[in-house]
Each structure stands twice: as structure tokens, then as C-alpha cells.
Amino acid sequence: MPGAVFLEGEKVNLRTIEEEDIEFLRDGINNPEIREFLTARKPVNLEQEKEFFQDIISNQKDIHLAICIEEKIIGIVSLEEVEDEIRVAKIGIWIETDHHGKGYGTEVAKLITGYGFNELNYHRMMARAYKDNKGSNRIWEKLGFQKE
Fold this sequence. Notes:
CATH topology: Aminopeptidase
Radius of gyration: 15 Å
Number of helices: 5
Helix content: 25-40%
Mean pLDDT: 86
């Protein structure tokens, strides 16, 4: 059964990550087209992904949500607290490559930044994107993020 919908958009919903998503997570991290723009570039097996899943569900500070079209998972979004005292967080998004260029990333970015600023009271949010990741950079520029 899919996780509970946490944030609802017009094109996508963000829901809790559940144990049934572990294989999707493993396959995504190991996909060369996705991995090219991730900071984690080592191969991950099913057991390692299960450990990651246990870490994220026990972590009370950071937020990891499944990006879904209806009930089908297509990616992951993370909001990780960097500095609690000054309310700074870092955003990470990855979406399956066959779903790129359809506006899903932009909607996810709007949903998660709105949640971070309005409900969690972050003062600053950062998004890390490689220079060659033109789609990701375009999303953050559209939302008014500044390059540093």
C-alpha cells in the first residue's frame, strides 16, 4: 500500500517513503543517468538500501518524500536540515529520466520550498546542482534561487 500523501500538487503528490519503495530507490541510485548528478555515486545493493530506508525513517530532522504521479513513484525529494539554530536546509530532488522535462521537478521544488519556508520556518534553503545539470539549474533559477 502506498504511503500517506503529505503534500499535494496539480501534477504530482509527495508522500511518505515506505518499505515497498526500497527497490525503486536502489534502482534509481544505480541508474547511470540519475547517478551522474547525485553526490552518492557508489553502487548500492538491496541490503544497503534497506539500511538507508531505516536511517531515513528514524531520522527526526530530515524529510524524505516519494514523488508520485497518482500512485506511481517517479522520484525522491529530500529536505535536510543543515543549521538548526539559523534555520537553514538543503533540498535534493531526483526524478526518473523518462519523466524529465514535464514540469514535475518545478512543481516538486515549489511544494517543498513552500513547506520549508511556511511550515518549518526555514530562513534559507539551498539546492545543490551540478553545472551540467541544466534542467535542475533552470528549476532553481525560475524559483529565484541565487548561484553561489
